[in-house]
Amino acid sequence: MQHVVFGAGLIGGYLGGVLAHRSQSVSLVVRDSARERWQQGVRLSDYQGHQAGPLYPRLLGSNWRADAKPCDVLWLTVKCTQLAQAAMDAQPLIGPQTKIFCCQNGVGSESLVKAIYPHNQVRRVIVPFNVVESAPGCLHRGSEGQLTLECLSEKDEIGELVTLLDCALMPAGSAEDMLALQWAKLQLNLGNAVNALADIPVKSMLEEQGYRLILAALMDELLSVCKARQLRLPKLTKVPARWLPFVLRLPNWLFLRVASAMLEIDPGVRTSMWWDLKQGKDSEIAYLNGAVIEQALSLGLDCKVNQVIVMLVHQVEQGKLKIGMSAQQLQECIGLKGGRSH
Ligand SMILES: NC(=O)C1=CN([C@@H]2O[C@H](COP(=O)(O)OP(=O)(O)OC[C@H]3O[C@@H](n4cnc5c(N)ncnc54)[C@H](OP(=O)(O)O)[C@@H]3O)[C@@H](O)[C@H]2O)C=CC1
Ligand SMILES: CC(C)(CO)C(=O)C(=O)O
């Protein structure tokens, strides 16, 4: 099988490295800056101490179109905001048999790809773990979770692909109910905006009750949407989805005992939205908290905490607000008292 990872940044670089580690034929379409950093080989590591590399996936820079031909599996690993453009740009790599995998956070971005390639198999992928480039060419998985590929039916042959990906450095699996899984992942990603606005590592954010109260309030709104839509969220963390707001609201002394597993992440981990805002890029907020707002409004449900957070992120994108907000400042913006919005 010929794999191409299109728009390989943190997730695509790690995935491409795993494919090379699993002896697959893989090319990465990368920006020239990444090509320079990675041409001495890509090294993989994870929070459990697994390592591989240097690995040498084929790196295609800005002149990749020169000898492009359709591949068997195309992994689209750009941000949601870049997906439609990337899908159009990738056209020389897509033939009638090419299977396309969309590896984005949030809900709904893959529909753009389906609209552009209605005759191809387009599947969703959930990426639950965090990746950072700890040094040039060193991609590090900082948290747990299995890469989950969409399974289209009971007779689907996705198992073969899962088997070739699945390894200690990147556990992989498949699932049929991707919508519920996307919403379960979205529940966790509601913290991306808070993390980016706070400008601190995820672990430090979770250790502060003030930030956790905001996360809980954001999640309440998502859970109301899921309840109204009768979406049963699968369990992605040790605490079931519907109990997360309750656990997050616990005082520090109890939270640190009850939810110690939630804090088993590298102390330096930041969310992908923090990277976007820090680099002055537009964020994926429309596909994350924005998806909750869209659904809540259509169902007549309250979503004002998510609305305020989206507004604050837009202000940062427009250069009108600086990141580094304390929990108290955020709570004041939201009108949060006693952990609930008023
Ligand atoms: N990073 C993480 O830890 C996690 C990320 N995710 C999700 O995974 C998805 C990918 O995120 P991530 O890997 O962080 O993103 P990155 O920004 O690190 O990687 C995307 C790369 O694709 C490049 N790119 C964009 N458009 C094109 C194009 N048309 N042609 C060639 N290259 C292109 C970008 O370059 P440029 O920036 O110059 O545009 C960038 O280098 C997102 O939806 C994210 O939310 C999920 C879990 C964790
Ligand atoms: C893994 C997680 C939840 C946090 O790093 C993420 O999805 C992101 O950063 O976008």
CATH-level-2 architecture of the largest domain = 3-Layer(aba) Sandwich
CATH topology title of the largest domain: Rossmann fold
Which stretches are low in confidence, meaning pLDDT under 50 for 5 or more residues running?
A: none
Cofactors, ions, other ligands? NADPH dihydro-nicotinamide-adenine-dinucleotide phosphate, ketopantoate
Encode the helix/strand succession as letters.
EHEHEEEEHEHEEEEHEHHHHHHHHHEE
Straight-line N-to-C gap: 55 Å
Biggest sheet descriptor: 8 strands, mixed
Give the count of structural domains.
2
Average of per-residue pLDDT values: 94
Specify the helix fraction band: 40-55%
The CATH fourth-level homologous superfamily of the largest domain: NAD(P)-binding Rossmann-like Domain
Instruction: Report the principal-axis shape.
Output: globular
Q: Output the CATH class name of the largest domain.
A: Alpha Beta
* Radius of gyration, whole Å: 20 Å
Instruction: Estimate what percentage of residues fall within beta strands.
Output: 15-25%
Widest β-sheet, arrangement of strands: 5-2-1-6-7-8-11-12
The overall strand count is 14
Offer a concise description of the structure:
The chain has 342 residues and is an alpha/beta fold. It has helices at 10-21, 32-38, 83-89, 110-116, 158-165, 178-198, 202-206, 209-228, 244-248, 252-258, 272-278, 289-299, 304-317, 327-334, and strands at 2-6, 25-29, 42-46, 51-55, 58-60, 73-76, 99-102, 121-126, 131-135, 138-141, 147-150, 172-175, 336-337, 340-341. Belongs to the ketopantoate reductase family.
